[in-house]
Amino acid sequence: MPDDHRQRRLTAMRSCDRILSGSRPKTMRERLADVEAGGDLDEWPDFYGGGPVAALEERIAGLLGTQSAVFFPTGTMAQQVALRYGADRSGIPAAALHPLGHQEVHERHAYAELTGLRGVRSTDEPRNPTAAELAALGEPVSTVVIELPLRDAGFVLPAWTELVEITKAARAIGARVHFDGARIWESTPHLGRSLQEVAALADSVYVSFYKSLEGISGAVLAGTADLGDYARAWRHRYGGTLFQQWPAALAAMAGLDRELPRLPEYVAHARTVADALAVLPGARVFPRPPHTHQFRLWLPYPAAVLGEAVLALADRERIWFAGGWLDADVPGYARTEITVAEPALEWTAEDVIAAGALLLKEIG
Questions:
Q1: Which pTM does this prediction carry?
Q2: What is the DSSP string of 11-26?
Q3: Which CATH number fits domain 46-243: 3.40.605.10, 3.40.50.1450, 3.90.1720.10, 3.40.640.10?
């Protein structure tokens, strides 16, 4: 996204009294308030680990029920290490990946370019692979990656029984299981299990702090003690053991305190928002009901037209509808991702429909 358009969106969104999708953008000063909320700023910082970073690692290991948790500056780095670990321990330089997964779409194939691994398609369907598809791979893989939820398929999740069968099938073909859990926090309502129960199905789990938890940056790779030792060594080799990372760690702590307990409420309200949006003329919503607090919305207009209408609505009515429109794979439609967070909780179904009508009126 061009910087000037992003700035227009942020400025318009910040000026609004009501926000349907997303959270109010924060200035750097407001971000510092999040850091302060995450811990005692009079304590010592981290020095290549320790301090707030170690405290965050310990907290995540407790939340997920794992032996270790290692902080990384980026999820891309953490996921490379997870796949490298599987290949090194098994001697199999291949991993089962979804073509819509984060490693294939958003990491510039780092697993292949930097680690020399080969990706094997786990399925071509817009969902995570089934147990039968894994059993039919036809070649050995060291790791099977499951993204919870699969963002680029519409934030979709398997049912709990399906997820259990998937992990059993992966181990039956001699592979370890890695959960790309950048958004695992909001997956538990649909799966009907706790974070610890979900994480227990995997050999390693990556979690993010800046997406659902609204942190500054950072990620954790969690798993066994052996994985933890390996991850710390390779984090250093990749340049991820920074001198100090306390602002990101403390902001993550604040997000765990503030946002994590509210995510089930966001997920529940997303159903109300999705049903209301589906009433708009020509609208398409997927999945319905949403599996998490995020889902996709299509409207029958060009992306540029919708983007300008959203900005006009924000200027005229101080209402933020949704940004980030893209011309979609459905002819004549544009698509966006709706994120139901704290600001949307005050919206009734009638409010959503009324705002949608105002948006369409802006288009004319």
A1: 0.96
A2: HHHHT-SEESSS----
A3: 3.40.640.10
